[in-house]
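Cross-check.
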Amino acid sequence: MPVRVTDARRAFSMLFCNLAEVIHVDDPSYAGYDFESWAELSATREQFETDHYEWVRTVRLSLAVPKVIRLLGYDRLPQQGVKLNRRNIFARDRNTCQYCGKRFATSELSLDHVTPRSQGGRASWENLVCCCVSCNARKGGRTPAQARMTLYRKPSQPRRNPVISLRLGSDKYASWRAFLDNAYWSVELK
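Predicted model, tokenized:
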């Protein structure tokens, strides 16, 4: 069952301390590697599959960043909430202005409070949207109704991290799909 997305530093730390193993997905089979065997395999893969992995290079060796690791044991699942931050809001809205419906580069977007803070609006998933600079200036400190603007899509809190959904579209993260599909069907419903 997928537990969480972690960064390369934490993954290598868990591998080195024998708390996890690398799972390499080779359809339809899986193979597990400890730190030493993954380091050996990385040396071989660096010659033939450089573009398939991100790499961490040290003075003595180059290691392929594993895409999937399996914990060898754990005592509880972490909290599954999605953090409210700028990156996740941009990913949820797919860099699309929620007033004009056009896609923009991240540098050309800002966040907008649907109900402005001056009118009691808070920072929440249901009140923050991606907005281009011109629509944000046009709306000003008013609600969309007061500014005679309509929302492209009603904002809501995503069930899982929206950045993961963006990464799943990339072939680089295809090995994640099998685990996330399995989690979708086997998760306990409440």
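The first strand starts at residue 20 and ends at 26. The two ends are 17 Å apart (CA to CA). Passed to J.P. for a second look.
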